[in-house]
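Structure, all two chains, one model.
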Amino acid sequence: MIKRNVSFLAFKRRFDRWLLVRAPMLWRTTLLPHLLVLLILAVTAATISFIQTRTIDPTEVYAEASNTYSSWLGWCAFSCCGFVQ
Amino acid sequence: MIRWPVGELAPHRHVVTVVAVAIGSYLWLITPGLLAYPRINAIAQVRLSDRELKADLAFVSQYSDWRCVPSDVWRTNASELKQLHDVSLRYYAANVKRGPPNESCIEGAAFILEPEDFSRVCKEAINDVIDARSFGPKYARGNGFYGIWIGHLWWLLAALATGILTAILSYPRYVWRRTFLQR
């Protein structure tokens, strides 16, 4: 267990260093980790709202198509807000 | 406060920043479209053949979208009434009935179909299935799902622009930190 932790920490340190050396400007702002958390949350929420697990009936097509388009527009607006932020 | 000389950042470090941010931005931008793909696929897989869809589209478009239905349709044409019943249950999930006379029709004695949005809803549903089936790189601009396709060049350009902007805007902060916060 301890050995695994040590090797994980060593990997993490090496990865941080590798990233810092190659893209130093990416990690110069504290905003980036927050944006990454926001991104993960947004993708999770979007996946739940878009999930489609069954074959739809012709009677549902009209509602399903307009829902798909409006959800897509909503998430595009959310993405743009994320960018502006 | 001690000021240290700031070395210029090597050009390839700027390129790495632009590429990294552009890739992240591209994924961020196309995610909503990518997530919509399974839904469009589900719409495309509705159990109706292309021939049935075309026949139904022609049927719901007749009589000026069923706003000017000649009176003899209600009296004599049993097969057409049955087809109307089938189509309304297929796409509209409700029965339709003869409405009040429509004075604006040029055919003479004609009636409107109630509910009035029957034809519009059916046509949109049929066109949505047709659009979903033709969704892809070679579809027409009139496709209802046009904007959702992730292969559009504008996503790539927006992502690249974000990468370049990030590199430009973050550089002064980088220089500032290296100037004043260096140990």
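Chain A has a mean pLDDT of 76.
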